[in-house]
């Protein structure tokens, strides 16, 4: 059975069910498999003609060895079956030109890539709780810069044995993201705005996980904590699937030949999405470079270029708010992998990040990272120009986050001349960031004074595409969540909700 250990080295290894149920390791580290996992080439070849569900089951089974094939099949059909996704391929790879494809990950209920994992985790978590003999309910704490929150609320809505509390930065999400969250229905869902930025919100949640008194209070109320952020291994595995699926689609469409390496461009803030691509590569998926696209909060770009991670910088609010992050949680897993599982070094770096706000990795680590990753960033003006130009050139509308990726892809091509076929990972529907997207394609004048819903209609007319189901009717749904607190009040709120 495949076990999972902590990147900080002081937690006894556990099966996947234990890692998923716990979310974050008790020593503050992140769970990772104790050994590399490979996708056998013959198994990969056998998946070319299969649909997304079969591909997902194959990848998941390699990691979740304590889940039976029948359990995984049920989870996969529940997550990706029926009409949950509004595209038959679930995550289609769309050709823009001979060298560039867009992997659309936003056909799920909340119009962002988070649905790819957050339709799955609510199925895995109750199973994980049962497998580990858990007698308490699971209280899921989430920090969001906009997309994870809604996808987690929707995924866990009324899931028996769970209660979910989502914290978001009060002024750090798009208006559509906010409306999606404040109108969320469900008997087990709670939403709290925090007067702070995403980093403060995420640190607040991590403090709660690490606080013995909070854990005891949750226990008294009949709960144990878990996470639906990408710190939870159960969030990452379903994200590995779509990298395989994109590659298999390109093979099936005859765009690449078997074994041909491709690049992935990934807009990322918390480093979870691109880390999933890195795991796919380690499993044997032919990947040449992973191109990490950042916005003006370019802490990851600086790190990949210099080996210095320094969060001591100004925090900007951008038109790609889901990536407004300066503390990228999942980098810890990458560091663990490239140091050959050196928990001591990882612990020291993370301690240094916590206490002095920066760390610097050794040359060997930096070089290993640079051998795979390349990074650049886009400002808001460059993001808007990428939306406009891509629409003009390909008649294809990008959301702001994907546009950051497109800008960085163009930079990458210019800088390296690399001609490998490239998949641009599209993380959200353009309708979700309608204000910035409409301003980019229709002009600032055309959006001035028009509300979100007028802009949805305007974009729908402009593209000839329907407004996605998940964004319709937000103007008539009742607002159910209005609580706003200071970062220092997050613990109190959790105690009150869980009644410990
Ligand atoms: N971009 C995220 C931030 C949290 O990231 P996660 O992948 O760790 O959940 C968001 O939209 O909330």
TrEMBL record:
MF GO annotations: pyridoxal phosphate binding; threonine synthase activity
Name of protein: Threonine synthase
One term under GO cellular component: cytoplasm
Top-level EC class: lyase
GO terms classed as biological process: threonine biosynthetic process
Residues that bear N6-(pyridoxal phosphate)lysine: 114
EC number: 4.2.3.1
Task performed by this protein: Catalyzes the gamma-elimination of phosphate from L-phosphohomoserine and the beta-addition of water to produce L-threonine.
Keyword line: Amino-acid biosynthesis, Pyridoxal phosphate, Threonine biosynthesis
Gene3D superfamilies the record matches: 3.40.50.1100, Threonine synthase, N-terminal domain (3.90.1380.10)
Catalysis: reaction(s): O-phospho-L-homoserine + H2O = L-threonine + phosphate
Species for this entry: Desulfotomaculum copahuensis
Domain Threonine synthase N-terminal stretches: 4-80
Pathway as given in its UniProt record: Amino-acid biosynthesis; L-threonine biosynthesis; L-threonine from L-aspartate: step 5/5
């Amino acid at each position: 059975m495949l076990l999972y250990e902590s990147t900080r080295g002081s937690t006894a290894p556990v099966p996947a069910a234990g890692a998923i149920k716990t979310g974050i390791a008790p020593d503050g580290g992140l769970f990772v498999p104790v050994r590399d996992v490979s996708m056998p080439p013959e198994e990969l070849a056998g998946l070319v003609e299969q649909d997304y569900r079969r591909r997902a089951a194959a990848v998941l089974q390699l990691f979740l060895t304590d889940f039976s094939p029948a359990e995984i099949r049920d989870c996969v059909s529940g997550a990706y079956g029926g009409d949950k996704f509004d595209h038959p391929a679930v995550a289609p790879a769309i050709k823009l030109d001979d060298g560039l494809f867009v992997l659309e990950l936003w056909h799920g209920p909340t119009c962002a890539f988070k649905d790819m994992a957050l339709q799955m985790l609510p199925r895995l978590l109750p199973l994980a709780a049962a497998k580990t003999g858990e007698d308490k309910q699971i209280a899921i704490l989430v920090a969001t810069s906009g997309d994870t929150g809604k996808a987690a609320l929707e995924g866990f809505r009324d899931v028996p044995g769970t209660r979910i509390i989502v914290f978001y930065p009060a002024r750090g999400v798009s208006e559509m993201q906010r409306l999606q969250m404040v109108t969320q229905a469900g008997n087990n869902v709670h939403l709290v705005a925090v007067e702070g930025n995403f980093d403060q919100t995420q640190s607040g949640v991590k403090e709660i996980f690490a606080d013995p008194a909070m854990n005891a209070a949750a226990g008294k109320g009949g709960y144990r904590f878990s996470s639906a952020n990408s710190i939870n291994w159960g969030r990452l595995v379903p994200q590995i699937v779509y990298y395989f699926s994109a590659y298999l689609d390109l093979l099936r469409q005859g765009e690449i030949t078997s074994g041909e390496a491709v690049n992935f461009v990934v807009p990322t803030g918390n480093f979870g999405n691109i880390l999933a691509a890195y795991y796919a590569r380690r499993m044997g998926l032919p990947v040449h470079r992973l191109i990490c696209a950042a916005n003006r909060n370019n802490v990851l770009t600086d790190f990949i270029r210099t080996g210095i991670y320094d969060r001591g910088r100004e925090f900007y609010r951008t038109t790609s708010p889901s990536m407004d992050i300066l503390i990228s949680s999942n980098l810890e897993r990458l560091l663990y992998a490239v140091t050959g599982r050196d928990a001591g070094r990882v612990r020291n770096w993370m301690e240094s990040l916590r206490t002095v706000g920066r760390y610097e990795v050794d040359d060997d680590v930096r070089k290993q990272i640079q051998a795979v990753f390349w990074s650049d960033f886009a400002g808001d003006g460059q993001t808007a120009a990428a939306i406009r130009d891509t629409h003009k050139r390909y008649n294809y509308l990008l959301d702001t986050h994907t546009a950051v990726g497109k800008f960085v892809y163009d930079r990458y091509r210019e800088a390296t001349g690399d001609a490998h076929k490239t998949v641009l990972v599209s993380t959200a529907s353009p309708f979700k960031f309608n204000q910035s997207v409409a301003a980019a394609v229709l002009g600032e004048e055309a959006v001035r004074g028009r509300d979100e819903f007028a802009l949805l209609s305007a974009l729908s007319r402009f593209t000839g595409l329907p407004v996605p189901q998940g964004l319709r009717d937000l103007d008539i749904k009742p607002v159910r969540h209005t609580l706003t607190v200071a970062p220092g009040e997050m613990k109190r709120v959790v105690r009150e909700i869980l009644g410990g």
